[in-house]
Amino acid sequence: MQYLEQIKHPPPAVSACASGSAGDEIKEKNIKITNVENELIYNYYNQSTWRGFKVIPFSNPEIKTYLPSYKSIYNTYKEVVQRLDSNMYVKETVE
Predict the structure, then answer these.
(1) Contacts of 42 (CB under 8 A, 6+ apart)
(2) In this predicted model, what pLDDT tens digit does every residue of 21-60 receive, in sequence order?
(3) String of b and e for 48-57 (b: at least 16 CB within 10 Å)?
């Protein structure tokens, strides 16, 4: 049953954005990554034609149209991401 549910709603992807800066001296090779923001995204497509692909962030209100159970799926996968790194920030879903 879980396998069938996974086919019906494949896991969302995680998109990450960050800004960074290199150290003052190139020979030191220091890189500091700051302002990391992760966002869960849903990949929609028409299952009967395998066309009409759309990438919809969970923060986009349009997610409600394509994934009615978006809140439950968001909470599940936010927990999975944060289990890997408890300091990982995941952008909030739309209400």
Answers:
(1) 12, 55, 56, 57, 58, 63, 66, 67, 70, 73
(2) 555 555 666 777 777 778 999 999 888 999 999 999 999 9
(3) eeeeeeeebb
- Flag whether pLDDT at 20 surpasses 60: no
Q: CB 4: neighbour CB atoms within 10 A?
A: 7
* 77 bridge partner residues: none
44/66 Cα distance (integer angstroms): 7
Report helix, strand or coil for 41.
strand
Cα distance between residue 73 and residue 67, in whole Å: 9
What pTM did the predictor assign?
0.65
Please identify which residue in the block is written with the tokens 């969302």. Answer: 12
8: tokens are 């019906």
